[in-house]
Amino acid sequence: MKDMPDLLEGLKRSASILSAFIQTIPADALHRRRDAACWTPAEHASHLAQVQPMLLERLQRFRDEEHPVFVPYIPGEGDEEPDTPEVMSIDAALEQFSRYRTKQTELLASASATTWEKTGSHPEFALYSCYILARHILMHDHWHMYRMEELWLTRDDYLTQLT
After folding, report:
1. What is the tens place of the pLDDT at every residue in 70-112?
2. Is the pTM of this model over 0.90?
3. What is the number of other CB atoms lying within 10 angstroms of the CB of residue 39?
4. pLDDT tens-digit profile of 4-49?
5. Are the CB atoms for 118 and 130 separated by under 8 Å?
6. What's the CATH number where 141 sits?
7. Residue 47 lies in a domain
8. Number of domains comprising the chain
9. Is residue 161 part of a domain?
């Protein structure tokens, strides 16, 4: 866990990286669906904004509970979960992402070493802790940003097909 300061710094920087990146994507490309199985870049941006409250709640549970037990969040699964994220305006998505990311990083910056080390149970993962969640959030941000860039710039023959 020597990289906790680096993770925290990366999490703090994600909002500005996402904002600067989104501004480079032409408006028509934001909403272009490359394949029926692919989200649009705007849907990826909306998803990033929409999951931030859930991620904050998970961090709060690590802070407040001895051994929190989590339920998986899988987009498109369940009766009330749409197959694609509800598209927000880009400005609203960026604002929500930034607002919740600030709350998350403030919580993590003030968290004790005990909180960072605290484990929980999550059926998707063999091991789950506050530290792993913080790292997961950062990787999740950058995976979606990479996917948005791929959907925008990659030629059809090279587009990754997700299953």
Report:
1. 998 877 665 566 677 899 999 999 999 999 999 999 999 999 9
2. yes
3. 24
4. 999 999 999 999 999 999 999 999 999 999 988 899 999 999 999 9
5. yes
6. 1.20.120.450
7. yes
8. 1
9. no
